[in-house]
Amino acid sequence: MPESGIEGVAAQFLCPAEALVDGGSGVRFTVGINTRQVGAFAVRFDGAVHGYLNQCAHVPMELDWQEGQFFESSGLYLICATHGAMYEPDSGLCVGGPCRGASLAKLRIEERDGKVFWVPEAPYYPAEPAGDA
Ligand code: FES
Asked: Which residues form the Rieske domain (predicted)?
């Protein structure tokens, strides 16, 4: 299991590597920021895996109006379904739309041994399991 970027916190398994197809559906997961839980996602682009908070840089809304659909039709850009902001999948930079020049919040995603992991780094921690006090 890969080391986390935070001492004592394990990398979090997200999905088998084959579940992320280049330019295809993303995998959604949840991260903790202080006491909040925030949606996040991982996608594959140009062979590599990338992950971001699922929050548009324009208004903090989730990007995918159809769950897991983050790419626009060409498969070259991530798109926010609300007002159409377009993001580079590998950098998270908004290259078109109302928040041009802003960026998605990037997470550290790694692929090892046929599996995709989120490697938590401050200020993003594994979300507390639901119902955990
Ligand atoms: S909320 Fe994403 S473009 Fe406006």
From this structure: 12-118
Length of the chain: 133
Q: Which of 87, 99, 100 for mutating ligand 1's site (highest number of atoms within 8 Å of CB)? A: 99
DSSP code of 18? G
Question: What are the phi and psi torsion angles at 40 (to 5°)?
Answer: -145, 170
Looking at ligand 1, which residue's alpha carbon is closest to its atom 1? 59
Does ligand 1 come within 6 angstroms of the Cβ of 96? no
Closest to 43 measured CA to CA, from 85, 65, 72: 72
Q: Is the CB of 83 under 6 A from ligand 1?
A: yes
Ligand 1 within 6 A of CB of 94: no
Q: pLDDT tens for residues 59-101? A: 999 999 899 999 999 999 999 999 999 999 999 999 999 999 9
